[in-house]
Amino acid sequence: MNKHLLAGALLATAMGAAPAAHAQTPLNPVQPWGSWFIATVQLPGSAEHKWGGFAEIQARTNGLFKEYFYNELKAGVSYDLDPNFTVAVAGGRYSTSDYKDLEAGPLNTEKRLWEQLILTQYSHRLKLEHRYRIEQRWFSFRDDSTAFRQRYRYRLNAFFPLNKNTITAGTIFLAAYDEIFLNPKGPVFERNRVYGGVGYQLNKHFVVQVGYVNQANYNYTAQQGQFVLQNTAAKNNVVMAFTYKFSHRAVPAGQEQLPTQQD
């Protein structure tokens, strides 16, 4: 009888330990640090010339400065309604590959169109941007299947110059933003992106920024032509961004233009 009791106790212990062991398996495994490289050519609008535009190329790696897997090509036009309100229309091509097998071609490519509104607030030093964006997204997968999705985005972006009151030539500045991504079909809360960095505007044309971005996905991702719930942890990335700004001849040399990242 004691043997039966002992066997039952051992079996109950084993059954109870199995879920615990399973629960200890991380659902969101730790992700390696990645890298983002961004190069932008920009023509900002102004009070004298309201039309502007940009073109950008971006590459990302799964590891820190290694394991390339993703790129973006995008461009758009903007119009300054006044110094605090800017509207824009833009589009791009986004390609995602398996960094272990780049020769096999992209896992999926995305063509994207978006419309956005930026509201800017200027204080003595602190500059704030509220960006509202609506995206239309067309996916093509390696197995020839396709999909269409929409997305809404809101970003609160802050800039703080350290050695001047405005961000002009010779200014060192801090930059930070938080952006949420919303899916109208659900799950509603799709992604959160947090950035912090430091930048330097060399002259009226060149701006360099180095920073850190944490991107957490809560959305459905594409696998074999289907959208399935993503199961990855938030990923940390080092960001290196380089911007060349054209300027209209009539724009004063000291006029402030915020070093906004287009992504």
TrEMBL record:
Residues 1-23 form the signal peptide. The keyword Signal applies. The keyword Signal applies. InterPro entries: DUF2490. It comes from the Bacteria. Keywords: Signal. Pfam families: DUF2490. This is DUF2490 domain-containing protein. It comes from Hymenobacter negativus.
